[in-house]
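2024-03-11 09:14:02 DEBUG pipeline.ingest accepted 1 chain
2024-03-11 09:14:02 DEBUG pipeline.ingest length=607
2024-03-11 09:14:03 DEBUG pipeline.predict start
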Amino acid sequence: MESDESMADDMSNSRRAGTAGPRRVPRLLARYLAAGLLLVLASAGGTVWLAQTSEYRYDEQASGADLVRDEQVLDALRTWAGSHSDWSDVGSTLLLLSQETGRRIAVVDGVGTVIADTAPELPRPATSTRLLDPLEPLGDPVTSELRLPDGISGPFSLDDAQRDQLTGQAAAVVACLGDAVVDTGVWGSGRPVVNGYDDAPDCGRAALNTPLPSERVALDELRDRTNACLLAANAPLVTDVELDLSPSSAPAQLALRTVPTGDDSADGCLLQARIDQARATTAPAVNVVLTDQRGDAQGPLDASPGSIARVGVFVVVLLALLAVAAALIVVPTLRSARRLETAVDRFSAGDREARAALPARDDLAGVGAAFDRMSGEIAGHEASRRRLLGDIAHELRSPLTNIRGWVEAADDGLGLDDAALRRLVLDEAGRMERITGDLQLLALAEAGDLVLERRACDAAVIVRELGEAYRAQAASTDIALHVELSGPLPLETDPARLRQILDNLLSNALRHTPPGGRVDLEAVTADDLVRIAVVDTGEGIAPADLPRVFDRLWRGEPSRVRAGQSTGLGLSIARGLAEALGGTLVAQSALGEGSRFELSLPARVPE
């Protein structure tokens, strides 16, 4: 743990070294490409074979069943329309019908607006769209005569009270007739119908079959509409329109007849009159979309059994080829992964010498090399931490040992007098205080917790003041100190911390420059940066030591530290402060020629 910064530099250098060199195509990628090409060729060949041998078609039986279900849906919608004047509330009915039939159902008005849709996300193909007009006459399956759908009752629909009244009467008639009952039913309008034998007693059937007041009103209106039609056709008029309720053979749905019974013209006019009469209470014509739950999109299995069998054979062959390709790709990779896993387990267990050492042509060679670099860096990191702890212990042990020796000698009546002893103890205590204070300051700077008091200032003033402050010290050691300024140096920074950086650099330069040497303090503004350099003609720094010059407690001459001239933390603090201020501090040196330390900070932009 000698220095976090040196360790970061070492790791960065090792990463750059690990990534240098020409890149090659990994064997794993080559195998992937080969396997992929094999699968593509197999897929293309299989597709051509299937296209030549398969005939996709919808199953005819399924199509027939769909037609039956579609008619069931349309009949239900006709019945619903007969009791509703519009389609606004049809949504719940569509959902029930969709659940019962398994069909997707959509109702669209004449201008294309979707009224309700059980699956709005599906397409609505025109081939699956049918026009539904609830008032369109249908052919009777027995007599082939035209009639309105069963659910169309118009004004003949009975309310709940009327239905209850007639239901009670019908129950009494059935009870009276007993075994003479032929058939019973209920019209779509809600009227119950009881048929009995011709020779059976009345039992109240005449009263049951008598029209209710609301039905009488509807019959009179229907008579008038029928006569209007007959008059326009120049045909004989009718005197009345009645409910077709024969005591022994009443129809199963709402049926009407003219009085007197007319010809085809009368029947046609009666049918048209019913249509016109029911229009006000019946929902209008709409388009109904009926598809399967896929929107009638052709699915992958909509094929003949033979085609499906061929697809199955093709899938089996393709899966076999895929298994072979997977074996070629995965097995070597798994072998390398296990080897790498073993190295990781050993390293995590504390074996810092554990390495994957995968061959250069291995599938996971890049990963293995990265792990080996990382493990080496971590091992070096831990070694550096141990060295730093040793250095700190040594730096603090030396003054403590001196103090203890002097105090023990004083207790034995030997050595220094009290005044000299106090002075030496204070010197050594001050040395320990400087070491701990510098370490704390460096830790705050590196952690980003250092409190800065930034303000606008002119670095040229600080440089000039430091030059004057150190001029006497330089002269006392026969060192020439020169200050070179190019003009104002505007900064937005903490002046005290800037002064501390330059103070460390100047004191370090004077300490390592022999008598007769020279120290230059240069400051210029260039490229939106304020550059302040301290250049000396001292002994310089060896190339091997230059990367460590900013490390904590590193020193080229340990004797100077022991002599109290340095804590070994000045340059580390200087660089930490420079980075905290948003700048950089770099060193250049040549052994025997001197060193150059340059501080760069962002210049303040004038407002």
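2024-03-11 09:14:41 DEBUG pipeline.report Residues 1-25, 558-565 have pLDDT under 50 and may be disordered.
2024-03-11 09:14:41 DEBUG pipeline.predict end
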